[in-house]
TrEMBL record:
One of its GO terms (biological process) is regulation of gene expression. GO terms for cellular component: membrane. Pfam families: AbrB. It comes from the Bacteria. This is AbrB family transcriptional regulator. The lineage of its organism: Bacteria, Bacillati, Bacillota, Negativicutes, Acidaminococcales. InterPro entries: AbrB_dup, AbrB_fam. The keyword Ribosomal protein does not apply.
C-alpha cells in the first residue's frame, strides 16, 4: 500500500508539472509516465483494476454530461461524416497491419488485432481466445499504440494546431443544473446494465451512455469537482502505465519501427480527415482532430474538456468508432480468418 501511495504522489506531482506546462490531460499523462519510470527502474509497481474502474466511472460521467438534445440534433446531420471517419480509421489500421505482417515474423491476425484503434480491451480478449494470434504481440502493439497516441496528440494539438489548455477548466464549478452527485447512481447503473448486456468496456461506456441519456432528458448536469477528476485521471493513467511490460517490449523489439511508423501514419491521416470534417461541418480543427485521433475515447474526450473543445462532437465520433471496432471488426476478423491455418 505504501508503494502505491508513493506512486500516486509521484504521478500527481508529474501531473501538476504537466499542467504548468499547459499540456492536456496532465494528470493522466502523469500517471502513465510515473508508472513507466518505475517499471524501467525495476520497481515492481502495480495498480488495482478496481481503482482504474472507479476512475472510469467518474470520467464517463464527465464525458457523458456534454451530450445534450442539441448535440443529437446536430449529429443527425453528420451521419456520413461519422461513418466516413470510422471506415477510414479501420482501413488505415488494416493497411498498417498488412505491412507489419509482411516485414516481421508476426502473423497478420496478430497485427490486425494489435493495431486497431479504440479496441484495446476487445482485441486483447480475442487474442487470448484465438490460438492463431500471438497475445504478446497484440498486447504490446495495442498498449504502445494507445500510449503513443495519448502522449503525441497533446503535443501536436498544442504546438501544431495552436490549441490552448484552460488552466482553470478543471476547478471551475457551477450551481446550475442537476447536482454532480447524480453521477453515483447514473454511473453505477450504467456500468451494471452495460455489463449485463456485454457492452465493450462497460465501466466506461455504461456511465457515458447513462449520463448522456440523463443530460438529454433532464438538461444540464453539473461537472464533477476538479480534485475528483484529477484523482480519476491519475488512476486511469497509472493503470495504463503499469500495463507496459519492459520484458514484453524487449521480446517484440522487431515490431517497434512498424508500430511507431504506423502511429505516425494514423495521426497524419487523422489530421487530413479532421481538416475535411472541420471544413464541412464548421467545428474547430482541434475538435475534429480529437474526434478522429486513434486514441481512447476517455483520453480524447478528457483532452477536449481540458482545452474547452466541443466534447459532444468528440464523444460521438469516438463512440461510433469504438462500437464499430468492438462489434463489426471482431466479426470481420472471425469471418476472414475462419479457414486460415495457424501459420
Amino acid at each position: 500500500m505504501l508503494n502505491r501511495l508513493l506512486l500516486f504522489v509521484m504521478a500527481a506531482c508529474l501531473g501538476t508539472l504537466f499542467l504548468k506546462m499547459e499540456l492536456p490531460i496532465p494528470y493522466l499523462l502523469g500517471g502513465i509516465f510515473a508508472a513507466v519510470a518505475c517499471k524501467i527502474a525495476g520497481s515492481p509497481v502495480t495498480w488495482p483494476k478496481n481503482w482504474r474502474e472507479l476512475g472510469l466511472l467518474v470520467a464517463g460521467y464527465g464525458i457523458g454530461r456534454n451530450f445534450t438534445a442539441d448535440t443529437w440534433e446536430k449529429m443527425t446531420h453528420q451521419t456520413f461524416g461519422v461513418l466516413e471517419a470510422t471506415l477510414i480509421a479501420v482501413a488505415v489500421a488494416v493497411l498498417i497491419a498488412w505491412w507489419t505482417a509482411r516485414h516481421t515474423s508476426a502473423n497478420l491476425i496478430s497485427c490486425v488485432m494489435g493495431i486497431m484503434p479504440g479496441g484495446l480491451t476487445q482485441m486483447m480478449l480475442m487474442s487470448e481466445d484465438d490460438p492463431r494470434a500471438d497475445a504478446n504481440v497484440v498486447v504490446v502493439m495495442q498498449t504502445l499504440r494507445l500510449v503513443g497516441v495519448i502522449v503525441a496528440v497533446p503535443f501536436l494539438v498544442i504546438h501544431g494546431l495552436g490549441a490552448q489548455v484552460m488552466q482553470n477548466n478543471a476547478i471551475v464549478q457551477t450551481t446550475d443544473g442537476t447536482h454532480w452527485l447524480i453521477l453515483v447512481p447514473l454511473s453505477f447503473l450504467g456500468a451494471f446494465v452495460a455489463t449485463k448486456l456485454k457492452v465493450p468496456t462497460p465501466r466506461l461506456l455504461g456511465p457515458i451512455l447513462a449520463t448522456a441519456a440523463g443530460s438529454y432528458f433532464w438538461g444540464s448536469l453539473q461537472p464533477v469537482p476538479g480534485l475528483l477528476m484529477m484523482l480519476a485521471q491519475v488512476s486511469i493513467g497509472l493503470y495504463m502505465g503499469v500495463m507496459l511490460d519492459p520484458k514484453k517490449l524487449s521480446a517484440t523489439k522487431e515490431l517497434m519501427p512498424y508500430i511507431f511508423s504506423g502511429i505516425v501514419l494514423m495521426i497524419g491521416v487523422s489530421v487530413i480527415v479532421a481538416w475535411s470534417l472541420s471544413e464541412r461541418y464548421g467545428f474547430s480543427l482541434v475538435t475534429a482532430f480529437l474526434a478522429m485521433a486513434p486514441g481512447g475515447i476517455a483520453e480524447m474526450c478528457l483532452a477536449g474538456m481540458s482545452m474547452g473543445e466541443d466534447v459532444s462532437i468528440i464523444l460521438t465520433y469516438q463512440l461510433v468508432r469504438l462500437l464499430f471496432l468492438n462489434i463489426c471488426v471482431p466479426l470481420g476478423i472471425t469471418m476472414y480468418f475462419k479457414n486460415k491455418s495457424l501459420d
